[in-house]
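Chain A, query sequence.
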Amino acid sequence: MNDALFEKVAGICARKEMCEYDVRKYLAKFKSLLEEENNEIVAKLKTGGFIDEYRYATSFANDAYKYNKWGKYKIIFVLRGKGIPEIAISSAIAAIDEELYGKIKKELAETKRKSLAADDPQREKKVKAYMYGRGFVE
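Chain A, predicted structure.
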């Protein structure tokens, strides 16, 4: 195993949350690494506590709805795409502050409504499509 690369990746994981998918994507940049070496590095990062799918999912969900203003469905979709276990995704979604989430949802809808012409017959349909795109389905 490449110890220098492990130290580099461990340093990155210590600074910001990364899931296994992100680490493997980063390691793929190094063409000289064998799949076996990648697996060893990932396994060592997991046992060292640098990679934790539950912690990552919670952090990702929190940042996504607070800063990116994403809805639950978009967050779920992205986390599934990264191969995060369903139980971790459910836990992360359950940890979302419903009051703040509702406030963000309402603000986004109002901002979109204001950006559209008041006499537009498609106004509400456009707002709904916008909200669906942001992951607010309910």
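The helical segments are 3-15, 20-27, 35-47, 53-66, 72-81, 86-94, 98-115, 123-133. The mean pLDDT is 92.
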